[in-house]
User: What shape does this take?
Amino acid sequence: MLLILVFNPIFHKSKKITRSKMQNIIVFGASGQLGNCLKKVAEEKGINYIHFLPEDEANILREDLLDIVFEKYKPTFAINCAAYTAVDKAEDDVDLARAINKTGAANLAKQCKTYGTVLVQISTDFVFKGDVALPRTEEDAADPISIYGLTKLEGEQDITAIIDQYYTIRTSWLYSEYGNNFVKTMLKLGADRDELKIIADQVGTPTYAIDLAGAILDIIKSDKKAYGIYHYSNEGVTSWYDFAKGIFDISGTNVKVFPIRTAEFPTKAQRPAFSVMDKAKIKSTFGMEIPYWRDSLEVCIKRLSDTQ
Assistant: This one.
């Protein structure tokens, strides 16, 4: 729950803001998985001009608070990691999902326009229907089949309508040492159970959030102005079943895993059957080399093991 504070905004939207020559980055949703990964990577890279804002200071649904944040930091970049990501709950909690994923993104875009700030928006592979077995490019039409995917797409569209200086980065199947995610869930279940049934007919690409955080900071560091929508995930293609098998193989967890179809495990929200994204644009534009998903999974599991 975000702490609600009352302020009287004293700033005028019409005033022209002069950007400082020094980089200044602010992060919204700093306490989440990607926010924590950004913090770790920034520390490793020695980046000390990035500010991870507490939730009571950085409520993206409160325009009065955002006025104060942007006036205080006058950021060159704002990274929006805040999102409603509970895919099944969103089907019933439509208003809140839309408020955070659409209205919150639009609120940030308005502030970025006023202050000359570049917005980095994190989006999702769930903007695609997933009924075509080809990697989706940024030019392919989005056609979400869940409220989560729809509200994230609406956020993308609002940003595009409001500002020109933005990077929208769609990603997929995020995991890391932080927060709740598939890898940590599988490790916990694998330690407690003898066998598991995992969906095998949904195909995509796992993404190590540490790798994504590094890519975001590399884009900022590049100082390129190649604004627009980009796709980023680790390299390769797998199913949830094979992802789980990889987790157990690498971690040495002894558990039997059985593949099942989506129809055998009904959920409130539909998921894309094939949500692999084409990453040629981000690789060619920024000269990125993206790690293979299983190589990054090995790194994550080792780090998790080292902290136990």
Q: What stands out?
A: Residues 25-176+206-235+276-291 form a domain with the Rossmann fold fold (CATH 3.40.50.720). The CA atoms of residues 204 and 276 lie 5 Å apart.
